[in-house]
Amino acid sequence: MSIFSFFTRTRSAPVARDRLQILLAHERALSGRADLAAILREEILAVIAKHVAIDRDRVNVKLERGDHVSTLEVNVEMLDEAKAKAG
Amino acid sequence: MSKVVVVTSGKGGVGKTTSSASLGAALAQTGQNVVLIDFDVGLRNLDLVMGAERRVVFDLVNVVQGDAKLPQALIRDKRIETLSLLPASQTRDKDALTEEGVLGVINELRAKFDWIICDSPAGIEKGAQLAMRFADMAVVVTNPEVSSVRDSDRIIGMLDSKTLRAENGEHFEKHLLLTRYNAARAAKGEMLNVKDVLEILAIPLLGIVPESADVLNASNLGCPVTLHNPESAAAKAYADAAKRLRGEMLEIVEPVEKKGLIGRLFGRKAAVA
Ligand SMILES: Nc1ncnc2c1ncn2[C@@H]1O[C@H](COP(=O)(O)OP(=O)(O)OP(=O)(O)O)[C@@H](O)[C@H]1O
Ligand SMILES: [Mg+2]
């Protein structure tokens, strides 16, 4: 280990958090105790995956509950070949 | 009304036994009548952590199987009058405990104690399920580390489906106890921080116990840390957690990193890099 690795050490915790969030949403959905966002995520994913190639890790589903309106935000990053096909 | 608390985690070695002993001692130190039950049949350790290993005569399996009466098996702590222990047996027979047997023991204990703290074995099999089955609430012990968080999530799912309360459609109260927390590493982004774990597991926080040599020392001596070294950060964390269990609203202070000279010079830079 060089002296520089001390400064350039990557921060692994954010990666751990993201991996866990994805994994647990999936596991909760499978075990049937999913929260609404996880159920929506799985079902929306299934529909999209029927038509275009997607990377399951690059999907973000956010459910924001407000007093009057709740919003569902879905972000799906398509793979390059999928983009080509669609566009 | 007595409370049955299961201390559980899924993953092994995260601090269930240590936390059962420390929380139980902390509750008893405030005058509550507390009994600790070791559910880790075949791998009992609570007796050792409590310094009672040479006083075990009868155990939970003996009581469940009718070979001993409950009062014969209970070990009264020599330091705290209101604290007792019901040890696990060292039998290898996995079916030594039955659901009816455990229910009988818990009902008998309810008449005598304010708190019945069940130290669960690791895993999600029968032993862990029996430890949680009749609980009123759970303390989910988690380390800030991926596999521990994942297993805690699994256990939370089981608490919400496999406990008697959950089966009866009642809400099952769960509290997160984050243990072996290293504030310096969390601050540097090398370890999941409190916010990360809370966001993922989404259950209320009971306390944060720092990684500490005081805990190891206390175990070595067979004395819960709240009794052996009450001024230590770990003991204070457990004492506060015990108060929160009793319903006190105490602010949770996140441990801060104590930087050494090197840390002071480079810590900030390292965290940004
Ligand atoms: N806050 C802490 N700081 C340092 N060491 C700790 C801390 N908490 C627990 N330990 C140590 O971690 C080890 C495992 O703890 P413990 O036996 O309580 O875990 P457990 O979850 O009951 O394990 P098992 O799943 O095998 O029953 C022990 O050596 C204990 O002393
Ligand atoms: Mg244990």
Your description of this structure?
The complex is a heterodimer of chains A (87) and B (273). Chain A is built from 4 helices and 2 strands. With 87 residues, chain A is an alpha+beta fold. The longest helix of chain A has 18 residues. The model of chain A has no long low-confidence stretch (mean pLDDT 74). Chain B is α/β, with parallel strands linked by helices and 273 residues long. Helices cover 44% and strands 16% of the residues of chain B. Chain B is built from 14 helices and 8 strands. An 8-stranded mixed beta sheet of chain B has the order 3-4-2-5-1-6-7-8, with helices on both faces. In chain B, α1 crosses α13. Classes of the chains: A alpha+beta (87), B alpha/beta (273). At the A-B interface, α1 and α2 of A face α7, α10 and α14 of B. The structure holds adenosine-5'-triphosphate (ATP) and magnesium ion. The site of magnesium ion (MG) has 5 residues of chain B, from α1.
Bound molecules: adenosine-5'-triphosphate, magnesium ion
Mean pLDDT of chain B: 92
Amino- and carboxy-terminal Cα gap of chain A: 47 Å
The rounded Rg of chain B comes to: 19 Å
Class of secondary structure makeup of chain B:
alpha/beta
How much helix, percentage-wise, in residues of chain A? 40-55%
Query: How many strands, what sense, and barrel or not for the largest sheet of chain A?
Result: 2 strands, antiparallel
Strand content of chain B: 15-25%
Percentage of helical residues of chain B? 40-55%
Order of strands, main sheet of chain A, comes to: 1-2
Supply the helix-strand structural class of chain A. alpha+beta
Flag low-confidence runs of chain B. 266-273
Q: Please, how many helices of chain B?
A: 14
Helix count, DSSP H or I runs of 4 or more residues of chain A: 4
Number of beta strands of chain B: 8
Q: Indicate the mean pLDDT of chain A.
A: 74
Silhouette of chain A? globular
Order of helices and strands of chain B: EHEHHHEEHEHEHHEHHEHHHH
**Which radius of gyration of chain A do the C-alpha atoms yield?**
17 Å
